[in-house]
Amino acid sequence: MSTFGMTDRRHFMTHAATAAAVTVPGLNFLTNVRAQAAEMKKKGKSLIILWMSGGPTTIDLWDMKPGTANGGEHKPKPTAASGVEITEHLPKVAKQFKNLSIIRSLKTTEGDHNRGTFLMSTGRVPNPLVEFPHIGAVLSYLNTLDAEAMKNMDLPSFMSVGGGRVGPGFLGMKNAAFNIQSPGQPPENVAPPKDVADRMVRRAEMFKLLEGLTPPKPGMKTLGLRTNVPADAVQAHKDVYQKALDLVVSSRKDIFTFDKGKDATDLERYGNNGFGRGCLLARKLVEAGTSCVEVTLGGWDLHNGIFATLADQRLPTLDSGMGSLVEDLTASGKIKDTVIVWMGEFGRTPRINQNGGRDHFPRAWSVVVGGGNIKGGIAYGSTDADGSSVKDNPVETADLFATLYRGLGIDPSPETVASVRDNLGRPYYIAGDNPVGIKDLLVKG
C-alpha cells in the first residue's frame, strides 16, 4: 500500500468516531435537548470550574478537624452561612458562603493524578475503549444543537485557562476547550495582520484546498496537496479552523486583554497572578456568554511542608481569586445564571505523614459548589471524627455531575439524552444512569 493511501486511512479513522458521535437520530431527543440548550443560552447559563491541580487538601480547607491528631496547624473560622466553618486563611471566600455550599462526603475511586483528573473532568472512570468528554465539551455540544444561538456565538463555548488536560473525547474537536495560557494577553495568533481582508481570504481558500473541501480552481497550482479527501475525515479540521477564524474576525476578541486603567482595581482585588487573572477573565467570559470556563490553580500535591505552603502561597492566591469572583457575580446578579464548582482530582489523607504533608486520598473529601439553581449556605454530608471515611450522605461522582447539570437547568436523565451515542454506538448518559442530583442542594422548580 502506498504512503498516500496509508495517510488517507489514518486521517479518516482519526475522525470517524467524531462523525459517528454527532449523528443524533432521535427526533424526541433533539426536541428536548434543543429546547434545553436554547433555554440555557437564552438565560446565559454558564459553568465555571475552579480546578485545583495536584489534589487539594480539603481537610485543611472545608472539613477541618480541630483538636484531633489529623487536624493540622490551622484553625476553622465561621463563614457568612450560619454553622458553616472553613479555614481561617480564606476570609474573602468565607464572606461569600450565602451563595456557596460544601459537599463534605464525596467518595471517589481514583488516587492517581491522571486517572483522578479524568474522572473529575468527565464523571467517568477511564476506559481504554471510550474517550469520554469533558463536561465543558458536553456543554459546548449542547450549544451546537441550538442553531440560532450559534449564529451569534463568535467566542468559543468552552475555554480553559492554564489547564486543558482532558479533551472532548468522542464529541470531537469542535467541542474542545480553547486553551488560554496567559490570561490578560491576547491568545496567540488571534490578532490579524493589517491586510487581513485579502490574506484571510487566501488562507481560507488554501485551507479548503488542503483539506479537500473544494476542488482546485482552473490553473491553480496545488503543489501536490490532496484534493480528494473524504468530507467526513476533514470535518474536525474544518470545525476547528472555522472556530479560529470566527475568533480572529470577532469584534469581541479584546475581551481577552485587560485595560491597565479600567481593570487595575479588579486585578489588585483578584490578585495579579495567573489564577487571579484567570478568575477575572472567567467573569468577563461568562458575562459575554461563554458556556464553560475552567481556571486552574496548581501546586496542591503537598506531600511535605503542607501548612506553611498553604498559609503563605496557595490559600492567599485562592482567596483573592475565588472570593472576588463570587463577590462580583453576586453583585451583578450573574450568580443566578452561573454555576461554580471548586474541585481537584482527589483529596488528601487525614493522617499527616512524617514529612509534614498529606498523601493522595479519594475515599472521603470535599468539593464546593454554588450559583445557578444550587442553594448556598449548606454543608452537605459529613466525614467521621478523624476524616478517614464518610459518615453520612455519601456522594459519588455521578451525583455531583447531575447536580451541576441541574444547577444549569439541564435535565440529564436518560429519557432526555438517550440518543447521544459514544464511539462504540452505545447510549451515553451525561450524568450516569440515575442522575437525580443532590436534592437538598437544588432549588425546586
Main traits of this protein?
eight-stranded mixed beta sheet, 13 helices, 445 residues, two-stranded antiparallel ribbon, single chain
Task: Give a quick rundown of the structure.
The chain is α/β, with parallel strands linked by helices and 445 residues long. The chain has 13 helices and 14 strands.
Describe this structure in words.
The model is unreliable at 1-31 and 220-233 (pLDDT under 50). The protein contains 13 helices and 14 strands. With 445 residues, the protein is α/β, with parallel strands linked by helices. The longest helix has 27 residues, at 306-332. Helix content is 36%, strand content 13%. The protein has one domain (33-185, 257-441): Alkaline Phosphatase, subunit A, CATH 3.40.720.10. Strand 2 and strand 3 (85-87) form a beta hairpin. It has an 8-stranded mixed β-sheet with strand order 6-5-7-1-8-11-4-12, with helices on both faces. The protein is globular.
Largest sheet: 8 strands, mixed
Reported by name, the CATH topology is Alkaline Phosphatase, subunit A
Backbone CA Rg: 23 Å
Helix percent band: 25-40%
- State the end-to-end CA separation: 61 Å
Q: Assign the structural class, choosing from mainly alpha, mainly beta, alpha/beta, alpha+beta, or little secondary structure.
A: alpha/beta
Biggest sheet strand order reads 6-5-7-1-8-11-4-12
CATH architecture: 3-Layer(aba) Sandwich
pLDDT averaged over residues: 83
- Identify the overall geometry: globular
The run of helices and strands is HHEEEHEHHHEEHHHHEHEEEEEEEHH
Spans of at least 5 consecutive residues whose pLDDT stays below 50 are 1-31, 220-233
Which CATH class is shown?
A: Alpha Beta
The CATH homology group name: Alkaline Phosphatase, subunit A
Q: How large is the share of residues in beta strands?
A: 5-15%
